[in-house]
């Protein structure tokens, strides 16, 4: 088994992976160089951070069967192409959430006190207490969290300690216990959140549906003098519209992600923070703390170990989530050919199997197979299975609709 790691990844994690197979560490690879590296190494498993994984890359190594995103967002990986090729894509949900929440609080605090501007002036020898001694203070202000996933919840935990009032919005009702535990109120929709918030912080994944979720209209709807914090993904916010609102003095902004940002570690990048003073900005470092990188590394190792040892992929993001209409639970003697016999019986009925698992009981004499499908086998088929000398019990279960 060969693992190609195409982004920065801790040495400790590489060492553990090295005990499972060969590890090729090429953190310098760009999206354009990735297909050739995959073809050359014939990697079975690819580990990436923000490096774009295209269909060409996925097709370059025939044995490639798993891509692990050493982070949260998977929009940089062509998951549809991976699904067509039967390649698993997995991520590490929540493992860098605290790091992003800490940066979010850092941006909120820095903007309120204008820490960056004050530092720059002091560095140039100017004492300007008159100008910088005018912060609003956070206590009692309202923070609106767009999305209420792993990162937003960690932001809520920290923001509460600063006395901020918390709102969120989502497509679906959020469990009341979860809201209560975080001291957050769910409002009707994004518009209501923008109307009521002094600070808006964006924590949703990028998708076609979320492209410019915070566009010109949403930016215009924010309260005058409000702050927008964006640490999720370039493209969720319309950077141009935001720059105009900040330039006009209506808003302030703290950004960690940008439209068209470079994927690598160092590059020239003309960006909206360049000419707009009230934008504070960092170069996509939300997840880049030692603590987060170590937690991510442990999770990547866990995902790969489980895949190699048991074929189980934790946090796969490109599986068909639809619950099958029927499941057949067969308890049987653990003998060669019993499972094949069950599958042959289903094949004769033209039943297309969707999922299958088989668990062996202690002692190794009996096992339990669960097979899922959309179309029910006939009573005769079930009876034939029940009559099989190595089958102990057969039960057909229909999913609740
Ligand atoms: N700046 C950085 O370094 C990092 C950025 N991120 C970005 O942050 C995003 C969020 O990360 P997590 O909180 O860990 O993901 P998550 O999956 O735990 O939470 C995202 C939540 O947003 C919700 N959502 C999606 N579209 C929405 C919409 N239009 N309105 C309201 N809710 C919506 C989802 O239902 C989900 O609950 C990631 O997808 C990634 O793009 C993640 C980690 C590091
Ligand atoms: O985990 C994520 O979604 C991130 O955005 C982190 O990106 P990175 O791994 O630092 O390139």
From TrEMBL:
Name the coiled-coil region(s). none
Entry's PROSITE patterns? ACT, D_2_HYDROXYACID_DH_2
Pathway, according to UniProt? Amino-acid biosynthesis; L-serine biosynthesis; L-serine from 3-phospho-D-glycerate: step 1/3
UniProt GO molecular function: (S)-2-hydroxyglutarate dehydrogenase activity; NAD binding; phosphoglycerate dehydrogenase activity
Q: Which reaction does it catalyse?
A: (2R)-3-phosphoglycerate + NAD(+) = 3-phosphooxypyruvate + NADH + H(+); (R)-2-hydroxyglutarate + NAD(+) = 2-oxoglutarate + NADH + H(+)
Describe the location of the ACT domain by residue ranges.
327-401
Any idea of its EC number?
1.1.1.399, 1.1.1.95
What enzyme category does the UniProt record give?
Answer: oxidoreductase
Q: Which family does it belong to?
A: Belongs to the D-isomer specific 2-hydroxyacid dehydrogenase family.
- State the function annotated in the UniProt record: Catalyzes the reversible oxidation of 3-phospho-D-glycerate to 3-phosphonooxypyruvate, the first step of the phosphorylated L-serine biosynthesis pathway. Also catalyzes the reversible oxidation of 2-hydroxyglutarate to 2-oxoglutarate.
Write the protein's name.
D-3-phosphoglycerate dehydrogenase
What organism does the record attribute this protein to? Answer: Nannocystis exedens
């Amino acid at each position: 088994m060969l693992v190609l790691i195409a982004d920065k990844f801790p040495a400790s994690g590489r060492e553990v992976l090295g005990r499972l197979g060969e590890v090729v560490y090429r953190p310098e690879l760009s999206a354009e160089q990735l297909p050739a590296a995959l073809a050359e190494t014939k990697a079975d498993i690819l580990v990436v951070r923000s490096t774009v994984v295209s269909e060409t890359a996925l097709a370059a190594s025939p044995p490639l069967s798993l891509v692990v995103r050493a982070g949260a967002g998977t929009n940089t990986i062509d998951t549809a192409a991976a699904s067509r090729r039967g390649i698993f894509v997995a991520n590490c949900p929540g493992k860098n959430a605290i790091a992003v929440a800490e940066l979010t609080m850092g941006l909120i605090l820095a903007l309120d006190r204008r820490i960056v501007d004050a530092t720059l002036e002091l560095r140039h020898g100017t004492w300007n207490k008159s100008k910088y001694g005018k912060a609003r203070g956070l206590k009692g202000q309202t923070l609106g969290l767009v999305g209420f996933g792993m990162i937003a919840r960690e932001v809520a935990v920290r923001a509460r300690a600063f006395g901020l009032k918390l709102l969120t919005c989502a497509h679906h009702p959020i469990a009341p216990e979860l809201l209560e535990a975080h001291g957050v109120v769910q409002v009707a929709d994004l518009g209501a959140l923008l109307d009521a918030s002094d600070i808006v912080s964006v924590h949703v994944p990028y998708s076609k549906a979320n492209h410019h979720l915070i566009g010109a209209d949403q930016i215009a709807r924010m309260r005058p003098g409000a702050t927008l914090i964006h640490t999720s993904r370039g493209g969720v916010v319309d950077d141009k519209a935001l720059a105009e609102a900040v330039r006009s003095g209506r808003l302030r902004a703290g950004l960690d992600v940008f439209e068209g940002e470079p994927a690598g570690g160092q590059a020239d990048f003309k960006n909206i923070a360049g000419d707009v003073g009230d934008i504070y900005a960092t170069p996509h470092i939300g997840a880049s703390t030692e603590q987060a990188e170590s937690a991510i590394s442990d999770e990547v190792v866990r995902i790969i170990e489980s895949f190699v040892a048991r074929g189980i992929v934790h946090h796969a993001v490109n599986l068909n989530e639809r619950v099958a209409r029927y499941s057949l639970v067969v308890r049987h003697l653990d003998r060669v050919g019993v499972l094949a016999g069950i599958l042959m019986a289903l094949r004769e009925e033209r039943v297309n199997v969707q999922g299958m698992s088989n668990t062996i009981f202690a002692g190794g004499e009996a096992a339990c197979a669960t097979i899922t499908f959309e179309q029910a086998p006939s009573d005769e088929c079930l009876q034939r299975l029940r009559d099989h000398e190595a089958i102990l019990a057969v039960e057909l279960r229909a999913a609740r609709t």
